[in-house]
Structures are given as C-alpha cells and as structure tokens.
Specification:
Blueprint lengths: L1 H29 L7 E8 L10 E4 L2 E12 L2 E9 L9 E6 L6 E6 L13 E5 L3 H32 L2 H52 L1 H47 L4 H7 L1 H24 L12
Parallel strand pairs: 1-7, 2-6, 5-7
Antiparallel strand pairs: 1-4, 2-3, 3-4, 5-6
C-alpha cells in the first residue's frame, strides 16, 4: 500500500513537473514574463512580413518583450508589443522586422532613439520591413536579367566600335591626337612667351588706376566747385527762362493791343481812322490847321482889337 502511494506520488510529481516545464516552455516561447513590470507600445509597419503573435522584440539586440497583438488598419500593420518597463523610448524611436538566424521566424528589432524628448504616451512607433529570402532571390534574379541585357548592349557597342575603328580611322585619330598635342605645346609656348607682356600690362593698368585715383582725390574740391557753379548756372538759366516766358507773354499782350489799335485806325469809326482813310477830310483838317496857324501868327504880330459894348445894341 505504501509502495502504491509512493508510486502515485512519483507519478504526480512527474506530471506536475512536466506541466510546469510545458508552461515554462510556452511562456518562454511566447515571450511572457511573470512578476516583471511591463509597458505596451504600438508599432506601425507597411507590411507584416510573416510576423506572428509572440515574436520576440529586441532592443539593441537584447530581448525586452514580445508581440501581443497584430491588426490591419487601413493598409497598415499595427503591432502591439509588451516591453520591460526599464526600456526608455525617445521621440525618434523606430523599428524593423527582421529574420531570425536560427529558427527562421521573424523578430522585431526596436531602436529606442537618441532624441532628448521622450516618446509621448500612445504615439505609434514607425517601422520598416527588411526583405526576406524570397524577395532577395527575386531581386537577384531581376539584377541578373539586367546584367544580361547590359552585356548584350556592351556586346553590340563593342561590335559597333570594331566596325568604326578601322585602320584608316585609327590613323586619323592618331594624327588628330598628334595635332592636338602640337597645338597644346604651341599654346603653352605662347602663354609662357606672353606672360611677361601680360604682367607688364597688368602693372601698367594698376599704375594708371592709382594715378586716376590720386588725380580724382586731388581735384575733388575743384570738381565740387565746378558742379556747384553748374548748379548755380542751371538755376540762373531757369530764372532767365522764366523771365523770358513772362516777357513773351507781355509781348503777346502788346501785340494783341497793337493789332486792336491798328484795326481801329483802319476803320472809319474813329477820328484817327477817318483822317487816315478819308483824304478830303484830311485836306480840310490840314487847311483848317493852316488857317489857324496864320490867325495865330497875325495875333502875335498885330495883336487883337476888341470892341465890346455892354448894355445896348448897336
């Protein structure tokens, strides 16, 4: 009886140990951690790349959590991961989904960032997906096709060059290269021979510039006085032009008055006009003036004899 109880106890202990081992394996496989403070973060990826719930989350190469939930929202893969509370995330934190080396599964590599500001609570962390083996093979195949097309083009180009580079063409190219070499040598010789002349011309130009500057500095007061005189002459000329304009206006007015006077003289309405236009009246006036002159002459010569009778009639 005691042996049976011992056997049952052993079987129970073995079963309990197996269950504990199985539970520990599941916990380790899922990345669950008991008795440790944790925090949840949200990561956004353009593609899940085969990531699964329970995939490990590594921070700088050290496992610090696991993936808890996977959702698809508006074409974006949203991962909710649980991390240890001691992981400090910054505003520039980012993540990548990578391939695990041994198991062949997927893992999340989280880079906490180096910014001074911490990551606001609830703000998602942007992520990227690394290409898997299939994508790498496809890219290599595409690269091989591009290399094949490039080799065909190089072959075509080489054939065309062989067709163009005939012996005659090669001789012409050699001749052209020799002529270019000779021309370069001549240009170098010309430049070396003209260097002294160029330097002398530059020195002369610099000397002339200094002399002009000195001349301007010495004659600056005279130039200023000349400019001031020109300014005064300009003002005087403006005043003279203004006076000339006034004189012209007065001449125009005098001309108008003279025209009115001449018009009055040409008409017969005034005495002067009648004297100028009527010859008979002019003769009469001339005769009257002559008689008056004679009368005055007689008065001056003989005097005036006045016989005045007052109060009675003759």
């Amino acid at each position: 009886m005691e042996e049976l109880r011992r056997l049952e106890l052993k079987v129970g202990l073995l079963t309990l140990g197996t269950l504990l081992l199985l539970l520990g394996s599941i916990t380790w496989g899922r990345g669950w951690q008991l008795g440790i403070r944790t925090q949840e973060v949200v990561l956004h990826f353009p593609s899940g790349a085969g990531i699964e719930v329970g995939a490990p989350v590594l921070v700088n190469g050290v496992q610090k959590g696991s993936v808890r939930y996977i959702e698809l929202r508006d074409g974006i893969v949203v991962l909710t991961a649980r991390l240890d509370a001691d992981v400090e995330l910054r505003r520039d934190a980012h993540a990548r989904i990578l391939l695990q080396e041994l198991t062949g599964g997927r893992k999340v590599e989280l880079f906490p960032g180096t910014a001074a500001e911490p990551l606001p609570r609830g703000q998602p962390i942007p992520g990227a997906t690394a290409p898997d083996v299939g994508e790498l093979v496809a890219n290599l195949a595409n690269f091989g096709e591009q290399l094949q097309r490039l080799s065909l083009r190089l072959d075509t180009t080489a054939t065309a060059l062989n067709a163009v580079l005939t012996p005659a063409t090669q001789r012409n190219l050699a001749t052209a290269i020799e002529e270019l070499t000779l021309l370069a040598q001549q240009l170098r010789s010309l430049a070396e021979g003209s260097r002294a002349s160029v330097e002398e011309s530059a020195e002369n130009i610099a000397l002339l510039s200094r002399r002009l500057r000195t001349l301007l500095e010495q004659n600056s007061p005279a130039i200023d006085r000349t400019l001031a005189s020109l300014e005064r002459l300009t003002r005087q000329a403006e005043t003279t032009l203004g006076n000339a304009d006034s004189l012209l206006v007065q001449l125009q007015r005098s001309s108008a008055t003279l025209e009115e006077l001449l018009s009055a003289l040409r008409s017969r309405k005034t005495l002067a006009g009648r004297l100028l236009q009527d010859e008979q009246l002019a003769l009469q006036v001339d005769s009257t003036v002559t008689q008056l002159r004679d009368f005055l002459h007689q008065i001056q010569r003989y005097g005036v004899n006045v016989n005045v009778r007052l109060g009675t009639r003759p």
